[in-house]
Design brief:
12 strands, two-stranded antiparallel ribbon, 2 domains, DNA polymerase, domain 1, binds S-adenosyl-L-homocysteine, globular, alpha/beta, TIM Barrel, ten-stranded mixed sheet, 14 helices, single chain, binds iron/sulfur cluster
């Protein structure tokens, strides 16, 4: 199969166009179709000459993600299950910035995207790794999660929803002209992003570029289970992407019990890599810490966690664990979470506790895919 058009940077596209004797403005027209108008076919690109469209068709593929299943109501958190060209499935989650309480549409959203099919890291609490790792996503498959979600959102706001027909049409027009539904990206879907480093960076550069997604680097957060060498590599990149570390344990014994990656990169090595990262960037990092009852929520974790956070200039996001079907773990109860938070704050650490309810749809990525694949297997 020829490479997908959305895996190329503008410079790479321009090199092809020069070779084909095409004027430079045609590249801008193509980028406009791909990233602003979110075209799903070559034929949609009506202002490109037919011969050029043919040339593009011969040299590149243009694949739009196919929506297999969607969970969640309009204007709340929504989970998308997409089918890729080879039939594999991945998830993205769209989270409105201000969940609309009174039925108005929220125009600011965070999208959580996947970077691999499955995950090889096998954290004991996570659905994404339960069936192992299948493959890395290409840059275009990471980029297309944003585009496909926006394609869906633009269509929805016209067809149905709380907006009047007139407002819907107006919104569709502004959307057509490049206003993004997705303003923030978190790379926290299925897979370990830093284990797919080159494709991830290429995708993020396309999503960050003014000719592409136009999403600011500071609005893009990469979450990792702690791959120390790649954290150092990321520290040397010029972009100001944000970094979140899935810590989930503040001592090696607690962390290694639930995250096998801690055996390869124990806390000493991880923190050394983060020291280096901090020496290159003056940015606050985030520690994600899911609270699992009886596993990592004991107060003896608070001191070491606070020490790490202070040393690395990190803020802590406490997240009550979302139960995963077939796994034995439970979330800490509300009181335990509040006590943990208060103890952390007493240590002088900036911390937040995610308090919203409805864990089944807010659940981390990986679960909808797992469920769907198992249902498909179960069917005769
Ligand atoms: N592999 C990367 C990014 C994907 S996971 C990483 O581990 O950071 C995104 C976040 O969701 C991680 O912090 C992960 O630990 C968390 N997570 C996984 N399963 C979860 C669950 N059942 N409930 C709550 N958070 C979960
Ligand atoms: Fe993979 Fe992250 Fe899940 Fe661990 S938490 S299995 S690294 S996706």
């Amino acid at each position: 199969m020829p490479p997908d058009i959305k895996s190329l940077t503008r410079d790479e596209l321009a090199a092809h166009f020069t070779e084909w004797g095409q004027p430079a403005y045609r590249v801008d027209q193509l980028c406009d179709w791909l990233y602003r108008r979110r075209a799903a076919s070559w034929d949609a690109m009506t202002n490109l000459p037919k011969a050029l469209r043919e040339k593009l068709r011969e040299n590149f593929s243009l694949h739009a993600l196919e929506l297999v299943r969607k969970q969640g109501a309009k204007d709340t958190t929504q989970k998308f299950l997409w089918k890729l060209a080879d039939g594999a499935m991945i998830e993205s989650v769209l989270i409105p910035a201000n969940p609309a309480l009174y039925g108005e549409a929220s125009d600011r959203h965070t999208l959580c995207v996947s970077t691999q099919v499955g995950c090889a890291y096998g954290c004991k609490f996570c659905a994404s790794g339960l069936d192992g790792w299948k493959r890395n996503l290409g840059p275009e498959e990471i980029v297309e999660q944003v585009i496909a979600t926006e394609r869906w959102a633009a269509k929805e706001s016209v067809v149905s929803g709380p907006l009047s027909v007139e407002a819907g049409a107006q919104q569709a027009r502004t959307t057509d002209h490049g206003q993004r539904t997705v303003n923030n990206l978190v790379i926290m879907g299925m897979g370990e992003p830093l284990a797919n480093y080159d494709n991830l960076l290429k995708a993020l550069r396309i999503l960050n570029a003014p000719w592409g997604g136009g999403i600011g680097a500071r609005k893009i957060t990469i979450s990792t289970s702690g791959l120390a060498p790649q954290i150092r590599q990321l520290a040397d990149e010029p972009e100001q992407f944000r970094l979140a570390i899935s810590l989930h344990g503040a001592t090696d014994d607690v962390r290694a019990k639930i995250m096998p990656v801690n055996k390869k990169f124990p806390l000493k090595e991880l923190t050394a890599a983060l020291d280096y990262y901090q020496s290159r960037h003056d940015r606050m990092i985030t520690f994600e810490y899911i609270l699992i009852a009886g596993v990592n929520d004991r107060l003896d974790q608070v001191r070491p966690l606070a020490a790490l956070a202070r040393r690395l200039h990190a803020k802590v996001n406490l997240i009550p664990y979302n139960t995963v079907e077939g796994l034995p773990w439970k979330r800490s109860d509300e009181k335990e979470c509040e006590t943990f938070l208060a103890a952390l704050e007493r240590e002088g650490v900036t911390a937040t506790l995610r308090r919203e309810k409805g864990g089944d749809i807010d659940a981390a990525c990986g679960q909808l895919r797992l469920k769907t694949e198992r249902e498909l297997v179960a069917k005769p």
